[in-house]
UniProtKB/TrEMBL annotation:
CDD domains: NrdH (cd02976)
Domain DUF4124: 7-45
Residues annotated as domain Glutaredoxin: 70-127
Pfam families given in the database record: DUF4124, Glutaredoxin
Organism annotation: Dechloromonas hankyongensis
Protein's UniProt name: Glutaredoxin family protein
Matching Gene3D superfamilies: Glutaredoxin
Keyword Transmembrane: no
Keyword entries, A-Z: Signal
């Protein structure tokens, strides 16, 4: 009995390392298989190979990210509020870019966006908010279609989390 259990475990481990392929068939159906697609199928993606950033994101997050990209403006002097803003975005699983405002050009960009050089500042699509207010941030993210909680296994975003 013990040998049978060991054999089953060994076979399970071998199948877990097999390659998987994802492609769209002529009818528009997405196919995921352990064997390559037949013929000359275009847009074949091997799991673990040549994956684009964000391929593991849920569909709703990808749609929101395309339509309403999120940028958090921060600065070295901004510790508490910038951390709270970053934590809120990460707790919701929002992919975002963090710009640490340092140069005069970045300060001018921020002034044009929100009217003054104040951090943190959040830009969601074409909407922006100056300062940190969890309710205001959540409202902007809700309107953009971002999830209320991060999906299991999501990784933190932002320049300072890498």
């Amino acid at each position: 009995m013990r040998y049978l259990l060991m054999l089953c475990l060994a076979m399970t481990g071998a199948s877990a390392t097999a390659e998987t392929y994802r492609w769209t068939d002529p009818n528009g159906k997405t196919v995921i298989s352990d064997s390559p697609p037949p013929g000359r199928t275009k847009s074949v993606l091997k799991a673990g190979a040549n994956a684009e950033p964000g391929d593991n994101l849920p569909f709703a997050v990808k749609k929101a990210m395309e339509a309403f990209p999120v940028t958090l403006y921060s600065a070295a002097e901004c510790t508490n509020d910038c951390k709270l803003a970053r934590d809120l975005l990460n707790s919701r699983g929002v992919p975002f870019t963090e710009k640490a405002v340092q140069t005069q050009a970045e300060i001018d960009e921020l002034k044009q966006l929100i009217g003054e050089a104040a951090v943190p500042a959040l830009k969601v699509g074409k909407q922006s908010y100056r300062g940190f207010d969890a309710a205001a941030y959540s409202n902007l993210l809700d309107l953009a279609g971002y999830p209320k909680t991060a999906p299991y296994g999501s990784k933190p975003a932002g320049a300072l989390n890498k």
